[in-house]
Amino acid sequence: MLVVGATGTLGRQIVWRALNEGYDVRCFVRPRSAPADFLRDWGCYHLSKPETIPATLVGIHTVFDCATRRPEEPIKMVDWEGKVALIQCAKALGIQKYVFYSIHNCDKHPDVRPMEIKSCTVKFLKDSGLPHITIRLCGFMQGLIGQYAVPVLEEQSVWGTDAHTQE
Predict the structure, then answer these.
(1) CA end-to-end span of the chain, whole Å?
(2) CA dihedral over 133, 135, 136, 140, signed as positive or negative
(3) Who contacts 133 (Cβ-Cβ below 8 Å, separation ≥6)?
(4) Using H for helix, E for strand and C for coil, what is the string for the chain?
(5) What UniProt keywords apply to this chain's record, in alphabetical order (predicted)?
(6) Rounded to 5 degrees, what angle do the CA atoms 38, 41, 47 make?
(7) Biggest CA-to-CA distance, the chain
(8) Which of 92, 93, 20 is nearest to 61 (CA)?
(9) Can you tell me the distance from the alpha carbon of 93 to that of 36, in angstroms, rounded to the nearest whole number?
(10) What is the chain's pLDDT, residue by residue, as a tens digit (167 residues)?
(11) Which of 20, 61, 130, 133 is the most exposed place for a label (fewest CB within 10 A)?
């Protein structure tokens, strides 16, 4: 199997569980120096480099796609162009199952760019004819960890004001 977004909160859990269940797992991760640089050296790649996709899919029967861009990355490049290239390659190479993690009711919020992209990806995947499952998560707040959880743990202001409270 291939896990796209293998170092994220969700992807890491999928990889861990799959390995514990005895599956052979290949990972697709973003090129960063830490903590996953060693994964790239082992043959793991990222959606921002579509030319790496075909080789990554050879020998794969199932793709788990739980990747999304980081705030500093262009959403169109990773969450749209990268996903389109991945879905097209998966279809061309006869992938048996594509599992896509989306957002609940994303189609009802076209004015929110990440929701619009997820909705378009769901439609593109459906129209591709690739055997797939779409899991629409009701909320995945990984982005809030740095914005809220860490400041709370470090007793810093959450809203970015100068007010200092312990509530």
Answers:
(1) 45
(2) negative
(3) 97, 98, 99, 100
(4) CEEECCCCHHHHHHHHHHHHCCCCCEEECCCCCCCCHHHHHCCCECCCCHHHHHHHHCCCCEEEECCCCCCCCCHHHHHHHHHHHHHHHHHHCCCCEEEEEEECCHHHCCCCHHHHHHHHHHHHHHHHCCCEEEEEECCCCHHHHHHHHHHHHCCCCCCCCCCCCCC
(5) Photosynthesis, Photosystem II, Plastid
(6) 95
(7) 57
(8) 93
(9) 27
(10) 999 988 788 888 899 899 999 999 988 876 655 555 555 555 555 677 778 888 889 999 999 999 887 777 778 887 899 899 999 999 999 999 999 999 889 899 888 888 899 999 999 999 999 999 999 987 655 555 555 555 566 666 655 445 454 44
(11) 20
Under 8 Å between Cβ of 23 and 60? no
Closest CA to 8 of 99, 56, 69, 81: 69
Question: How many residues in total does the chain contain?
Answer: 167
Using the structure block, give the residue that is written with the tokens 């830490």: 34
Domain boundaries, the chain: 2-153
Query: What's the whole-model pTM score?
Result: 0.77
CATH fold of 2-153 reads Rossmann fold (3.40.50)
